Amino acid sequence: MSVITDPPQEGFRISQLLYDTRYRSMTIQIVALIGFLLAIGWLINNTLVNLAALGKPLGFGFLWEPAGYDINQRLIEYNSQMTNARAALVGVLNTLLVAVLGCITATILGVLIGVLRLSKNWLVSRLMTVYIEGFRNVPVLLWILMAMAIFIEVFPQPRDFRGEDPAATMKIFESVAITNRGVYLPGPIFNAGSGIVIAAFIASLAAIFFFGKWAKARQEQTGQILPTFWIKLAILIVPSLLIFFIMGKPIDLEIPAIKGFNFAGGIYMRNSLIALWLALSLYTAAFIAETVRSGIMAVSKGQSEAAAALGLRPGRIMNLVILPQALRVIIPPMISQYLNLTKNSSLAIAVGYMDITGTLGGITLNQTGREMECLIILMGIYLVISLTISTIMNWYNERVKLQER
Amino acid sequence: MSKLSYVRTEMLPEQAPPVAQAGIVKWLRENLFSSIPNSILTLASLAFLYVILSHVLPWMFQSSWTANSLSECRSMIAAAYGEGTHGACWAVIRERFLQLVFGFYPAELYWRPIVAFILMLVALAPVLFDKLPRKMLWFSAIFPFLCFWLLWGGSIWVPIVALAGFVLGGVAYALIGAKFGNLPATIAAFLVPVLWWLLLANPVSNGLHSIIPLGLEAVESAKFGGFMLSVLIGITGIVMSLPIGVLLALGRQSDLLIVKAICVGFIEFIRGVPLITLLFVASVLLNYFLPPGTTFDIILRVIIMVTLFASAYMAEVIRGGLAALPKGQYEGADSLGLDFWQSTRLIIMPQALKISIPSIVSTFIGLFKDTVLVSIIGLLDPIGLTTNIRADAAWNGIIWELYGFIALVFFIFCFSMSRYSMYLERKLQTSH
């Protein structure tokens, strides 16, 4: 009978820290941590010494002092007597505005171009290839500057619209004025009673949502398919329009009109905003188009053939078979394109659009001389925006991902 | 028996296919007018093309190459093509070409960037084409120092002493590695050069220079500009970011919690902020982080930040390559008894890098395009120079010619690089 004995226990020796793989990783980590902390400490120490020598110790009090500059593009109330923090907030909102607008248009354009590039039409697919390669291979800053130059060089000044025989006329039923200062669009005026129309509109949105759920449940139970798209469209338009006319047209359009040397009334979109928006969406659309194309091509041909063999019509093949599978490939790179667009919006500073880089990282930084604090906050804000976008989109990605068993 | 036959015994002569089924008509029908929506699309694209080209082509070709100012150019175009013609004034490109390429680099020293550029091609050749003799890699290794010296000039001892730091690191690694093993050797190989550069490099190079004063005329950074600056920042950024990116990617994959946390934190931070904020850091903040009294060159600072930026993206690209490797490769390396660095160097990295080549190239294209952002912090890259050229009274108001030229140059660079990566991808394809 044999006796199983434990291997002889050895005491711990210092050299094991270096040569024994069980302990070595610990040693490496501790060495790395010490090195890292030393480096960080060195940098922070240098910074504090330097700042003290310049007589501006680290502090964020300047945020609550009056900013003293005007911001021409703003979504919330702001004037030059308000604080730097308020100016930064205006800048953040401007960044988000152009990012959201840009993401929406870039997605629409990108999907369209990506699908058209796969078109069997030779001319169309070549044109789209030229578009994609052209936009992808030239720096976005150049596109932004060119879009701005189009505004300044090509479009007429507001004063050209004046007089009996104006040099320039307004487009689209005399309602939109494109000038070198920006675009003046008709804006809605809400008169008494417009609340009811808006409420009706919101109610029909809710009705569409519930109708969609009901139709789906019905289809699963009975197998009958309703023409949901047309019914939804009817629910969206008809009740709101009816109430709009019953209430006696309470919502008016205010058309911009020339007053003196400039237009007044309506919605004014500044040239820098439009140039930035246009350039960012066109540029990002080229990347999204490639993503969409590769996503669609990644779905094997057998899938659409099998769907056709089951008797599905082309539209349903796209909706039910191809897109769900293509989306899984498309969404992750799409997220990074959205992030890129948001980060590229910081180039607003080149055309004078007052986004967060222009307010906090530009004028506030230069006026207060608080480089360290401004840049820390600026980077922090961008980090938060980026992390939020990627969290939301990753959550969406989890939802549409095919469930693999 | 009569010789009646109801079956034809000889072939009919071949006939031409119907007009609609052959040649250009067939091609047109299949590719452009296969259905009504398709025909509409085709006609719409043709109309679009016509509108664009009818504006752009006359502008491009009814142009002047010889004028010396914008007003002269306009009058020449009016004289040649009639009053009211809008034509391009390409003369600005002719007159400012050297400036757009070299910035304000002294004209009599243009040979230095040119030599550096040619040597750069020589140094890159063994990296890009594996047929060339491997000994050329030694030249690639010393090229960065040579290039630095050629471009900035100054004493030759500065780059040599800097290079000596790496040599010392290697010597320390070999000596200590033989005696104490890998880990202390690695630490020594890291510490010795740092100490050398921080404490000894300056006095040594000054001393050597006072004994043997060898050097080129120094050129200050403010004179750098144009495409030379873009290429300099782009190439340096990508070359230096590759090794850092590899280390970061390995760190992110590693089991060592602290190392992993540091790497993830760094990568996500850099990828979460726009490059322009990092360039702001380079231009106003970087000097704060260094010991009081240190000032160093703005271009160097920009290159440091661009390198950090690119290495975070590179790390993600390489991580993608590492993740795409089948697990069997790691296990196979383990079963051969290779340690971590051996298996990484011999088995994992060659394959992972190969997988990630297309993404590495596209990162590089992105970085190269992003170099124009340095114009925002006041460096004179091509876009920065456009403002400068417009400030000249002769060219005040010129826009499209300059932007168009710069866009064309960037397009040529980036497009050919993306084609090169496609070629490489096909060449390295080993599966069926």
UniProtKB/TrEMBL annotation, chain A:
Keywords: Amino-acid transport, Cell membrane, Membrane, Transmembrane, Transmembrane helix, Transport. The keyword Transmembrane helix applies. Residues 92-393 form the ABC transmembrane type-1 domain. Belongs to the binding-protein-dependent transport system permease family. HisMQ subfamily. GO terms for biological process: amino acid transport. InterPro entries: AA_ABC_transptr_permease_3TM, ArtM/GltK/GlnP/TcyL/YhdX-like, MetI-like, MetI-like_sf. This is Amino acid ABC transporter permease. One of its GO terms (molecular function) is transmembrane transporter activity. SUPFAM superfamilies: MetI-like. The chain crosses the membrane at residues 26-44, 87-116, 137-155, 189-212, 224-247, 267-289, 375-396. It comes from the Bacteria. GO terms for cellular component: ATP-binding cassette (ABC) transporter complex. It is found in: Cell inner membrane; Cell membrane. It holds the Pfam family BPD_transp_1. The keyword Glycoprotein does not apply. It is a multi-pass membrane protein. It comes from Paramylibacter kogurei.
From TrEMBL, chain B:
GO terms for biological process: amino acid transport. Residues 227-421 form the ABC transmembrane type-1 domain. The keyword Transmembrane helix applies. This is Amino acid ABC transporter permease. Pfam families: BPD_transp_1. InterPro entries: AA_ABC_transptr_permease_3TM, ArtM/GltK/GlnP/TcyL/YhdX-like, MetI-like, MetI-like_sf. The chain crosses the membrane at residues 40-61, 109-129, 136-152, 158-176, 183-204, 224-250, 262-286, 298-318, 355-378, 398-417. PANTHER family: INNER MEMBRANE AMINO-ACID ABC TRANSPORTER PERMEASE PROTEIN YHDY, MEMBRANE COMPONENT OF AMINO ACID ABC TRANSPORTER. It comes from Paramylibacter kogurei. One of its GO terms (molecular function) is transmembrane transporter activity. Its main location: membrane. Belongs to the binding-protein-dependent transport system permease family. HisMQ subfamily.
